[in-house]
Amino acid sequence: MIDLSLPHAITGNGHGPISRSDVVCFSHLRWNFVYQRPQHLMSRFARSRRVFFIEEPIQIEGETRMDVSMNTNNVIVCVPLLSPSDFETPDHVMPELVRRLADDQVIEDHIQWFYTPMMLGWSQHLRPAVIVYDCMDELSAFRGSPPEMVERERELLSRADLVFTGGRSLYEAKKERHKAVYAFPSSIDVEHFAQANEIEEGVAEQKEISRPRVGFAGVIDERLDTSLLGEVAELRPDISFVIVGPVVKISEDTLPRRENIHYLGKKAYEDLPALMAGWDVGMMPFALNESTRFISPTKTPEYLAAGLPVVSTPIADVVRPYGELGLVHIAGTAEEFAEAISEALNEDRNRRQARVGEFLLQTSWDKTFEAMNELVNEAAAQDRNGPSRDEGYAAVWRAGVAAD
Questions:
Q1: pLDDT tens across 159-218, in order?
Q2: Structural domains in the chain plus CATH codes
Q3: Which of 138, 277, 312, 380 to pair with 207, CA 20 to 30 A apart?
């Protein structure tokens, strides 16, 4: 057995006793993909608990196994490596791999944390103290979503103790489907992105790109309005558009190609402030479709903390609150987007930053984590004091597992 123990140096925070339960997180997003909500939260849990981050399987030529390693955040990353035959039917082998992991690492009292309902069956042999569904996206609306996603989510909602949503629109969509739904919109590591305000040189990769520069940092997939990007770049040949991030689920051939559009590829989270330091505007040219209906882009507060004016298409969770507060320019068409960029470039920076600073004081990943952690501890304490939840919740599921 690999020694993945974690010293539990835990202190009180004014909210009662802190649980030492392990966290077993099931995520469709890989740890080393793009640093976003799962990474922010799980790395904070890992300061005081063991966190097992279980990813989607990878096909290998060889015997099926679970690759287990601890990263620099003290998060224990678990990657299922499946033989070709097992890879075709992962749900048949994953429950046993997860059970072996639990036995090897003596995972007993634990919290199950789901980012995707599709992994729900993998935990069937475990008996969690608390089940959390952290719904950061409406995955059933994404391109290539499995047809059984909707039914799996229904089942997860019936078993979960707590449901967290990644934005207000998702909260509105889920609040009638569970008795304990809490909205936790995209948050921000202010100190990290505020570094951009102190960086003068930026990154060498951008030095040859003329200014003004309008930048986007994020996953490039069906949520990005590539047609809009191309049209805006054509309308404003005097502006350089810098696109940072991996291309996922769409062909690179579909991306607009212009002399003033520059694709820099995937960059590390640590490098983003230096990149943004060389931009004049942050942009979010999202498409208005089913996959963006409920998104709450993390890049909104990140751009603002980096000192950038921001232009976005009318995504609901950007319009409210950022657009309504005058912190983001909202534009629906290519012409409006181009005009909004001009307005953003002419903003009074000091006046904007005063308003932004006031807003960003209200939110941080630390505050989000503390609020979530308190709810988890309360749910764990409730479980230990005896079942008092309605039928269909985790206590009933655990009883059913014990009877099997």
A1: 999 999 999 999 999 999 999 999 999 899 999 999 999 998 778 899 999 999 999 999
A2: 22-187+365-403 (3.40.50.2000), 190-360 (3.40.50.2000)
A3: 312
